[in-house]
Amino acid sequence: MKLKTLTASTILPVAVISSSTPPAAFPASGNGLWYNTTGDVTGTLWSTTFLPIGNGYLAAMTPGGMEIEALQLNIESLWAGGPFQDPTYNGGNKLPNETTATHLALEGIRASIFANATGETEDVYPLTSPFPFYGSYVGAGYLITTMNVSSPATDFARWLDLDEGVARTTWTQSSSTFIRETFCSHPTEACVQFLNTSSNATLPGVTYAFSVLDSLLPTPPNITCQDSSTLKLRGFASEPGMLYEILAQVQSTGGLVSCNALDSTNATISVTGATETWISWVGGTEYSMDAGDEASNFSFQGPDPHEALVSLLSSADTESYQNVLAEHIADVNDVLYSQFSLSLGQVTDSRPTDEIVTGYEYNVGNPYLEWITFNYGRYMLASSARDTPWGGDYHADINVQMNYWSAEMSNLDVTSSLWNYIEKTWAPRGATTAQLIYNISRGWVTHDEMNIFGHTGMKGGPGEGNTAEWANYPVSAVWLVRMPSSQSDVTECSLHSRWLDLWDHFDYTNDVAWWQAQGYPLLKGVASFHLDTLIPDQHFNDGTLITAPCNSPEQVPITLGCAHTQQLIWQMFNAVEKGFNASGDTDTDFLDGKHRCNFSDSLNHVRDEREQDVSVLEVPFRCWFKEPEVIAKRSQMDKGIRIGWWGQLQEWKVNLDSPTDTHRHLSHLVGLYPGYAIASYDMGIQGGLIYNDTKFNYTKDEVMDAAMTSLIHRGNGTGPDADAGWEKAWRAAAWAQLGNASEFYFELTYTLYENFAPNLFSLYDPFDPVPIFQIDANFGFPAALLNGLLQAPDVASFDIPLVITLLPALPTNWPSGHLKGARTRGGITVDLDWSDGKPETVTLTVDESPISTSRNVQVVYAGKEVGSFTTSPNFATTIQSF
Ligand SMILES: *[C@@H]1O[C@H](CO)[C@@H](O)[C@H](O)[C@H]1NC(C)=O
Ligand SMILES: *[C@@H]1O[C@H](CO)[C@@H](O)[C@H](O)[C@H]1NC(C)=O
Ligand SMILES: *[C@@H]1O[C@H](CO)[C@@H](O)[C@H](O)[C@H]1NC(C)=O
Ligand SMILES: *[C@@H]1O[C@H](CO)[C@@H](O)[C@H](O)[C@H]1NC(C)=O
Ligand SMILES: *[C@@H]1O[C@H](CO)[C@@H](O)[C@H](O)[C@H]1NC(C)=O
Ligand SMILES: *[C@@H]1O[C@H](CO)[C@@H](O)[C@H](O)[C@H]1NC(C)=O
Ligand SMILES: *[C@@H]1O[C@H](CO)[C@@H](O)[C@H](O)[C@H]1NC(C)=O
Ligand SMILES: *[C@@H]1O[C@H](CO)[C@@H](O)[C@H](O)[C@H]1NC(C)=O
Ligand SMILES: *[C@@H]1O[C@H](CO)[C@@H](O)[C@H](O)[C@H]1NC(C)=O
Ligand SMILES: *[C@@H]1O[C@H](CO)[C@@H](O)[C@H](O)[C@H]1NC(C)=O
Predict the structure, then answer these.
(1) What is the dihedral of CA 327, 328, 331, 337, to 10 degrees?
(2) Has residue 856 got a pLDDT over 50?
(3) What sequence ranges are listed for the domain Glycosyl hydrolase family 95 catalytic (predicted)?
(4) Closest-lying ligand to the alpha carbon of 662?
């Protein structure tokens, strides 16, 4: 396997006699990662060798050092740039005096697309803006723990216990066996590193220091003694920039703790004569997501974090280490395992994890490693997304979305941070962007790349060339209100691929209060905007509504009616309709404008500004709505489902697909997975479109075949453009959706083989000598894996039965196993046992208050219906014959 070179030559430390079997305290379940060598203590290869811990806002990466441990620190809101660096920061938007020119440019771009023979245009440059002070996530430096011992070490092992969410290191040196434990606790909001020996011997002198070595921080922070046992670090993320602070308090059993100021900018804490010592740290910044709106002048300015940190630390202070640890373990168990469990029938492989990874082969597989990688993905999601925003830059054209793909199905309560991030940093300035670029005065819009400072404009401007491939993505929020993402940044907590959906969250959880307060208003904001981006198709003049300019994410041409965009908007409009009743919204005009329009008499409808627009465009429209509402526009829009000349699902409305295009994104297959425009294609609803005198009457089989043809031609996720992990995870999920177990397992194992490092981080380019960690595949993997075991794609309306398919793509390598507590939409919990490659028993339980009662559900295995029921509160059924 390709990472061999990385692991073997670069990482082995000085001579250490190590174990070749897991340490005694390694979880009996096998649920963890372990190594008999330290990570790359120089830090260069942190992305392939360090192990992650986190509590949702603080995180750390540990190499598992011995007498010197250099822990990489992270505070999720620590960003350079934005209004902290430039108070006039405007989210990469146009200036008000550029509005008229921008609107004219947009009209010109649309006109040129319509007039062009192949429906293309060169670029969208006039819509873009420069993005000074876009900023970037910044690491918070290192916590260095040094022990005054120098003799050779033996019996080294380090591991990440995934049952407990604790990283541990043990080794023997100077005749003591040392144990170091590190974790970040959600209950106490602090991280802790604990050190003792197995025999309760007195520890050599221990020193704690902060270092900003090789971090991107501009000026060294001030490090002082807050008191005799507490270090205080204060610095700025950029120059000028956001203030941040870390407070770290040291406690010990026995011995003496003292804080020593070395000079005006540095201090250390020493512990002598103790049998146990531990350091607890809390960190924060002056960033506040609550100040990202007009009322706060988009300042994102919160209070100095100092007081809050002092009070956090003082409450952590009162508890014993053992209590803090026990509370943390209980919390991890509660979040990750109390509701949900998976078995792939795996047998624990006792080799060190790096050796398992190195020996792993695609197709051959190893159910144990696949199971660990699944658990690790959920662990990382829970460690990075607990009720808070996150670090890294957010690409919302697959990455952010993919990151959450597994959350709902595996019953992880981690999504509120994402909704808050969208509500507080996208929506407020996105409303201005809608006006500035698109001349749309309702709803809001964002584009592909986002920071934490409300960057909503289209990235571009002088010197950036044609950035349309990345920038021209006004449906980023559509995907997030039905959403996936990719993250290309080098940060530990980068959220690249969370596919999550406001609507899905509601459909899975029945949380009406949340839907009314947050979910639906966000959805309505995005849907409102897109009601106005849909315009009559003046290229084909086929009477449909399309968007233009559009392009598939990160791919040209720039054209009209792109399948990706059309499918996403159509799915979003369905979500509005399905969720309307529960939303409490009384704006029925928004949902259904039919009553305002007379289809047979175009002179009969209400005259207003919009109508003027239409007549100016001279479109032969049968009807125009006073307010172009959701249901009416949905019926007129191009649904983005079209079969092309080589049998493919067309990526663009114009005929430009190349059979040799192996692009990393499966943008036009968004309706196959994770969406449903393809997977639940319904001829009665999506067919019947009149287009170029052709009635679009594809059957579902034809559409699925076309999607498969596209998927085959798209290649295996290793192409000339990229060899990333997430593209393979997406392909795996798509193959599972097509019910193809062998292709599904190939892609799933191929990404593990090709892209996963010894520490099971997924890498953007596995051949890079210093590879970039791209977290997407870590989150895409569990979602894809689940899609091979259980599927229940969404449907356009509650009148259409929900089809739950059991073991749709079960690989022969997982002949027996179970899923407990898996969730499907409709508020249904699924417990499934299988053996000999077949279901043995499945129990489906409807929640106490599903959003839709009397919804028809069909349970399918191997293409035949094995059960059916109508949802009602607490309904449960068990099926045992297949
Ligand atoms: C780690 O364990 C493997 C056996 O799985 C062994 O081959 C290797 O030598 C061990 N490494 C060290 C540094 O002891
Ligand atoms: C727009 O306003 C900015 C300052 O707000 C100014 O620098 C720029 O020259 C103006 N542009 C035009 C075209 O008037
Ligand atoms: C259509 O637009 C494309 C892209 O800008 C361009 O290469 C092509 O020449 C145009 N076709 C015509 C007929 O103008
Ligand atoms: C380290 O320990 C040795 C004795 O083992 C002692 O002489 C020395 O002063 C210690 N160094 C520090 C920095 O504490
Ligand atoms: C370890 O030693 C300390 C005294 O230094 C004592 O208070 C504690 O109970 C001992 N712990 C164990 C597990 O023996
Ligand atoms: C502070 O001093 C310690 C001990 O010399 C050193 O390891 C650390 O890098 C210093 N930190 C800074 C920020 O200079
Ligand atoms: C660090 O200390 C210097 C000198 O006292 C002060 O000017 C500066 O503002 C301090 N930095 C921070 C982040 O508090
Ligand atoms: C429309 O149909 C005509 C006649 O079948 C065909 O020549 C033309 O290529 C079609 N246009 C498109 C855009 O498919
Ligand atoms: C679709 O329409 C074509 C042409 O009218 C017809 O030949 C074909 O049988 C229809 N297919 C279906 C599935 O209705
Ligand atoms: C994946 O596709 C690439 C490009 O076609 C090819 O070079 C590579 O061998 C394929 N990998 C596997 C494992 O099939």
Answers:
(1) -120
(2) yes
(3) 320-787
(4) 10
